[in-house]
User: Which sequence fits this backbone?
């Protein structure tokens, strides 16, 4: 599918935001096994865990976000991530099931 192709071409997923609810795009990036750099906005800290499957910086901390990006560019292996497609996001039904699973685990 088109989303899978776009994620496959990306080297890292970046989400610099100061407000998030339950970020579905963050769920997608995690599902596709992307290295993730994001902020501690809203539900981000419930969707990914800093040091385990993402790097999470304080909201609005542009320097820390830039430093995390530079670290990734210098050494992609330095960003923790699940390097496999851990969830099947190929259908809308699978996307809903994943979202429900994560919401119920909180």
Assistant:
């Amino acid at each position: 599918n088109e989303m899978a192709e776009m994620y496959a071409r990306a080297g890292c997923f970046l989400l610099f935001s100061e407000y998030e609810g339950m970020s579905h795009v963050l769920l997608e990036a995690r599902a596709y096994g992307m290295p993730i750099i994001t902020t501690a906005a809203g539900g981000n800290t419930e969707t990914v865990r800093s040091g385990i499957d993402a790097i999470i910086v304080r909201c609005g901390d542009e320097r820390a976000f830039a430093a995390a990006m530079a670290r990734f560019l210098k050494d992609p292996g330095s960003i923790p991530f699940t390097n496999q497609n851990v969830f099947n996001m190929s259908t809308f039904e699978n996307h809903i099931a994943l979202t429900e699973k994560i919401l119920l685990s909180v």
Notes: The radius of gyration is 13 Å. The beta strands are 13-15, 36-39, 55-57. The longest strand covers residues 36-39.
